[in-house]
Specification:
Blueprint: E1 8-13, E2 19-26, E3 40-45, H1 48-51
Antiparallel strand pairs: 1-2, 1-3
C-alpha cells in the first residue's frame, strides 16, 4: 500500500482461487502478510469483506 492514501481489504487466494487468508483495513504504507500457499491477492475497497460477508474457504470465480 505504498503511495496509497487509504486503507484496503485484501483477499489471499491459493492456486484454486480459494480464499486462504483475509486482511481487513490494511493501512497505507504497510506491507501485507506472507501467507504460505497464497498464489495471488485481490485488493478491495475497505469494508468490502465485511459488507459482502466474505469468509476464508470461499472460492472466487472470475468471469469475462
Amino acid at each position: 500500500t505504498f503511495f496509497m492514501n487509504y486503507s484496503i481489504d485484501v483477499l489471499y487466494l491459493d492456486g484454486n482461487n480459494s480464499i486462504v487468508y483475509m486482511d481487513e483495513k490494511l493501512k497505507p504504507g504497510k506491507v501485507g502478510k506472507y501467507v504460505k500457499g497464497a498464489k495471488s491477492v485481490i485488493e478491495l475497497p475497505e469494508g468490502k469483506i465485511k459488507d459482502a460477508n466474505i469468509k476464508v474457504g470461499q472460492t472466487v470465480q472470475f468471469t469475462k
